Amino acid sequence: MTQTNKQTFLKGAFILVVSGIFVKILGAGFKIPLTMLIKSDGMGLFNASYTLYAFFVLAAKGISIAVSKMVSESVALGRDKEAERIFIVSFLILGAIGICGTILLYFGAENFAKTFVDSRASLTIRAIAPSVLFITMVSAIRGYFQGKQNMYPTAISEVIEAFGKLAIGIVLAWVLIGRSIESAAAGAITGVTISTFISFMFILIVFIIDRRRHDLYLPKKCRSRRSIVRELVIIALPITIGASVASLTNIVDMLTIMKRLQSITQVTPEFMQRYSDFIDPDLFSGGIYEGLANKLYGLYTGYAVQLFNLPLTMIVALSTSVLPAISGALKRVDIRAAQLTTNSALRITVLFALPCSVGLSVLAGPVLLFIFNESLAASLLRTLSLAIVFVSLVQVTSAILQAYGKMAIPVFNMLIGCLVKIGANYCLVSQPSINIDGAPVSTLLCYFVIAALNIFFIIRITGCRLGVGELILRPVLASGAMAVVVVFAMNVLSDMNFPVRLAVVPAIAVGAVTYALFVFLVGAIKESDVTMLPGGEKLAYMLKKLHLLRAE
Q1: For position 348, what pLDDT does the model report?
Q2: What is the mean predicted confidence (pLDDT) over 294-313?
Q3: 3-state SS, residue 526
């Protein structure tokens, strides 16, 4: 049972990782040319509306996670019909949330735009409003399939959604760019709305087909709708609040960064030199005005945050897969399986996230040059990249605590982190010598605090033994070796007169090989981790022959 549970968890995570890679590639194919098309000013408008949309999406995702947990428990007890009833109830609730969110965003667009960012953003907010309804209903169906540990519908629907954004959003932005930046940003956002509708239609059809294939019986102990609603609220409310708080940190950034930047009445000579291309002489009077603040915010979100989000694909997959796996194990009273899954998820998270964090920080400037032909956001990305490992741990540890039924703890910890972010933004961003560079520092502090608190409670609640060497020391050694080799490779290629934009590719390749080699040399990978992969038995045998894999 223990081995089967871990295999199901890793298989589900693997499916979502593969789809996530496609989604990120398509997403990069959307965001990168979009950034080059509408520049930092347009990306400021785009990201302002997208942040508001994400707030409603993540709030609704709380119910989706609750559905996943409840469905996995019902399926573990053989109550398939009850699982379907849970879905129907949640679908109706999320549909109602989606309708309210759409109405609120559409009719409150002007107020949101004036309050949070830039009055010009009202058009993009209206354009994205209908997508709130579609994505909330998609979340309900995804939660149902994830609870049954069937990740294929979620994976395919996410790829469809990403492809729709690319195909439709870029075309609309390109067509409308001649009219105005506001229209182009709204066109790109309209692509998001249309793609979420297509994704919803796909996964709805999949659910209907799946339902007809299975002859579901109604067991005697199937719970009533009232009982399901009661439990759904009890489980979903703290998760929803927690998800909202996580999204709220982005809104905190949007609100506090813009306002605190505009509180700077006299910029430094270094600022003038660095951001001279952003400054309009007709509007500049020594301080940061609204348009300049929006460009700085667009630089941060359109360049640094965009690349910062790329490595998080696998972590989202892990957190999505780990919750139903642990919940099902606990429902079967298989404590050992739950603990093994917890340990495995945390270890894999650090093994993946830490090299991404270190590597992107070391290569911040060259990576920006390679992708955008622009390195102005290098210092922002260099600092922000260090938060990747902590954001990843927050994602997975929150899912673990929720699986153990401790819904309120991640919420409480996220609120503390949010307060840290508000304080850091307020103190740092308003400093003329720091300005926008304070934003990534506040994010780093925020997620470090949340991750540390979550891990503390996991150790206390689950009884899992998280070895410092296994969880931290070995990945740190491998990542450190990788960083040294990458810097050395960049210096050698630079001495050979290699253009920085081209040198970054072989440097990343050398770094990846170095990290993989050191991961095995320091014993960071266990035999069971390899055997769970497709073809893992043969791979594990070969690695043991080479003395690169340690037995458990």
Answers
A1: 83
A2: 84
A3: strand
Tally Cβ neighbours within 10 Å of residue 508.
19
Task: State yes or no: pLDDT of 215 exceeds 70.
Answer: no
Q: What is the pLDDT of residue 1?
A: 41
Long-range contacts of 426-433 (CB under 8 A, 24+ apart): 426/256, 426/260, 429/256, 429/257, 429/260, 429/261, 430/260, 430/261, 430/263, 430/264, 432/264, 432/266, 432/267, 432/268, 432/271, 433/268, 433/270
Identify the band that residue 2 occupies on the pLDDT scale cut at 50, 70 and 90: very low
CA atoms of 234 and 405, how far apart (whole Å): 10
**Residue 122 to residue 124: CA distance in whole angstroms:** 6
Per the document, the length of the chain is 552
- Residues 377 and 300 sit within 8 Å (Cβ to Cβ): yes
Which of 403, 389, 323, 317 is CA-nearest to residue 358?
Answer: 389
> If DSSP codes are grouped into helix, strand and coil, which group holds residue 285?
coil
Burial class (CB in 10 A: 0-12, 13-18, 19+), 221: exposed
In angstroms, the CA 384 to CA 437 distance is 10
Residue-wise pLDDT for 349-364, tens only, equals: 898 899 999 999 999 9
**455, 253, 280: which is closest to 350 by C-alpha?**
455
- Distance CA(244)–CA(255), nearest Å, equals 16
Question: Scanning the structure block, which residue is given the tokens 């990788």?
Answer: 482
The verdict on pTM exceeding 0.85 is no
Inform me whether the pLDDT recorded for 5 exceeds 80: no
Output phi, psi for 523, to 5 deg: 75, 35
Q: Which pLDDT band holds residue 31 (cuts at 50, 70, 90)?
A: confident
Please, which pLDDT band fits residue 13 given cuts at 50, 70 and 90?
Answer: low
Query: In the structure, what pLDDT confidence band is assigned to residue 491 with cuts at 50, 70 and 90?
Result: very high
Q: CA triplet 373, 378, 382: central angle to 5 degrees?
A: 140
Tokens of 56: 């409603």
| Helix locations, 373-407, DSSP H | 378-385, 388-403
Mean pLDDT for the stretch of residues 57-62 = 72
CA angle 461, 466, 471 (to 5 degrees): 140
| Cα-Cα end-to-end distance for the chain | 18
Q: How many helices (H) and strands (E) does the chain have?
A: 23, 0
Query: CB-hemisphere CA count at 13 Å for 296?
Result: 30
The CA distance from 240 to 244, in Å, is 6
- For 496, residues 6+ apart whose C-beta sits below 8 A from its C-beta are none
- Tell me the pLDDT tens digit for each residue of 282-297: 888 889 998 899 889 8
* CB distance 183 to 174 below 8 Å: no
**According to the model, what pLDDT value does residue 531 have?**
61
